Amino acid sequence: MKVIYLNTWAARKLENYIHFLEKHKINTDIFCFQEVCDMNEEKYSPTGGALHQRTITKDVLSEFADFYAVRQYDWNDPEDFGGYLPWGNDIFVHKNTPVFEYREKFVIGYQNSASNLETVYKVGGLPVVLQAVKITYNNKKLWVLNIHGYHAGAGIGKHDTPERVTQSREIIEYIESLEGEIILGGDFNLAPDTESVGILEDFGLRNLIKEYNIQSTRTSLYPEEKRKKWPHANYVFVSKGIHVQSFKVDTDSLASDHAPMFLEIE
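-> structure tokens emitted (266 positions)
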């Protein structure tokens, strides 16, 4: 089984993004996306984001069922999006892989809880939702979880904050309620040496970014100065019962400023 995680960057590089989907849909079972816009009409943001991104993705991945989690229904960053629209995370599961259950859990805030959207990227405050789909793996239950972690505001970078520590603890508390193996991934907005990452490791989850000595989860579309200072943001964690066949991160991909992460399990 193959799972791909990608922060899509709102499909700012739309042609590259579509090419990525076309290339990998043939042999992928589950796509876990972050930063997905969902506007009904064809429209582009001032920074090039495809605000009708979810519609495009559903058209390309027509053989997949999608599970969309809205973090903020009235997202309106004038410099970035230029209009009100739903914004969140999306999981696409191939129709040959039956989904037995889908859940959402807000680990920071609640849906639409950000109050000042024009300054939220400067001061933080966006809600964080954890998605979970239940499938079967080797005749056992398997939960695939998708998250876009807390953005703490300008100047904070990928350091720990109280919200990020709380986020990790809430994730663990939620995982404890699930029966079966776990794959947890996404854009956590965290450096590797943070307490927030350590909480997940101490719980017993395998950190594949560390285990496979991944040096960066960013592409050349991310500014070089930031890329050198904060080379990591994205992670995949698995429970000990998952048999990893391969794991890689493609920093040469230009579908986003985040590198896609490819997980294959036996």
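The domain at 2-265 is CATH 3.60.10.10 (Deoxyribonuclease I; Chain A).
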